[in-house]
Amino acid sequence: MSRTSVIELQDVLLVTIQGELTDRDAMALQEELTSSVASSSARGVLIDVSGLDIVDSFLARTLHDIAAASALLAADTVVVGMRPEVAITLVELGLTLPGLGTALTVADGMDKLNGSARPR
Amino acid sequence: MTDILTVHEVRINEEIDIVHVRQAARDLAVSVGFSLVEQTKLVTAASELARNTLVHGNGGRARIELGRALDGTPTLRLAFTDTGPGIADIDQALTDGYSSAGGLGLGLSGARRLADDFDLDTEPGKGTTVTVGFRARRPARG
Ligand SMILES: Nc1ncnc2c1ncn2[C@@H]1O[C@H](COP(=O)(O)OP(=O)(O)OP(=O)(O)O)[C@@H](O)[C@H]1O
Ligand SMILES: [Mg+2]
Fold first, then answer.
1. Atom of ligand 1 nearest to the CA of B93
2. What pTM value is reported for the model?
3. Cα of B69 to ligand 1 centre, how many Å?
4. Could you tell me if residue A84 is inside a domain?
5. Is A64 part of a structural domain of the chain?
6. What Å distances lie between residue B106 and A13, A63, A95, A100, B140, CA to CA?
7. Is B128 in the pocket of ligand 1 (CB under 6 A)?
8. Sorted alphabetically, which InterPro entries does this protein's record hold (chain B) (predicted)?
C-alpha cells in the first residue's frame, strides 16, 4: 500500500515515502533506517515526503525520532518536499517539528547536508 | 441545520482500519468539492481520532455523514465511537501535550483545532464519542 525506498547517494541515505503509511510501516521504516545509518556510516538522511498527502501526529513523531536516533549516530536528517497543505495542517495540529531540518527540494536538501546552502 | 445526504460506517478494529477511515473521508471530501487544504485538515483529524478509537478506546467505528447546510454548502461530519474506558478528565485530555500513553498529546486537541465543530461525549467505564464537523468553504459544484 505504501512504497518506501532507501538509496545511498555518496554518504547520504535518500528515503522516499509514498502512499498510505500504516503506523507499523512508519515504525518499520524507523528501525530499518536507523540500522542503515549505523551500517552505512552515512553522514546524512534525506527524507522526501512529497509523496505523502497527510502527515499526522504519529508519523510526525516517527520523523522526529528518526532524526534523534540519526543524530546519536552522527548523521543529520533533513525532510524535503512537504506539500503546502500538509505544512498548514501540521501547524494547526500543533506540530512544528522543532529540531527537524527541512528543505524544499531534494537538491536543496543535499546542499544543506553538504553544508553549502544554495543561493536563493 | 444540515440535511444528511449519505452515511458511511467504517469499523476500527485494527491498524489498517485507520487507513480505511482516512480513505473514506478523503473520497467523500473530494466528491463534494472540498479544497485541498480542507481535505488535508479533515483527513488528518480523521486519522488522529481513528487512532484514538483504536488505541485508547479499544476499537469502535467511524460514522461519516455527508450533508448540506441550508445555504447549500457541503458538510462532512465524522463521529468516532468506542465502548472503551472513557475519559475521566476531559479538560486534561484536551490539553496540548497531555498523553496517558507516551504520545505527543496533540491528537485530540489538534483535531479540535482543525475542525469547524467539535463535540466530545464520554462516560468513564462506558465509552467515548468524538464528533468533528467540517464545511467546505467554497460552494458545491453542480
Ligand atoms: N477514545 C478515547 N478513549 C479513552 N481515552 C481517550 C480517547 N481519546 C483520547 N483519550 C485520552 O486523551 C488523551 C489525549 O489524546 P491525544 O490524542 O491528544 O493524545 P495521544 O493519543 O495520547 O497522543 P498522540 O499525540 O499520538 O495522539 C489520551 O492520551 C487518552 O488518555
Ligand atoms: Mg491520539
1. 12
2. 0.94
3. 30
4. yes
5. yes
6. 30, 16, 8, 18, 31
7. yes
8. HATPase_C_sf, HATPase_dom
A63: domain CATH number is: 3.30.750.24
Is A96 contained in some domain?
yes
With a 6 Å cutoff on the Cβ, whether B65 touches ligand 1 is no
Is A118 contained in some domain? no
- Count H helices and E strands in chain A, helices first: 4, 5
Q: Which ligand 1 atom minimizes the distance to the CA of A61?
A: 26
From residue B65, how far is each of B5, B61, B84, B129 by CA, in Å?
7, 13, 23, 15
Contact list, B19 vs chain A (CB under 8 Å): 1, 20, 22
Residue B46's closest chain A neighbor by CA?
Answer: A56
Number of domains, chain A: 1
Contact B115, B48 (CB under 8 A): no
| Amino acid at site A3 | R
A93·B43 Cβ contact <8 A: no
> What is the tens place of the pLDDT at every residue in B1-56?
678 889 999 999 999 999 999 999 999 999 999 999 999 999 999 999 999 999 99
Q: Which domains can be identified in chain B, with CATH numbers?
A: 2-135 (3.30.565.10)
What number is the ipTM of this complex? 0.91
Expressed as residue numbers, the domain containing A99 is 2-113
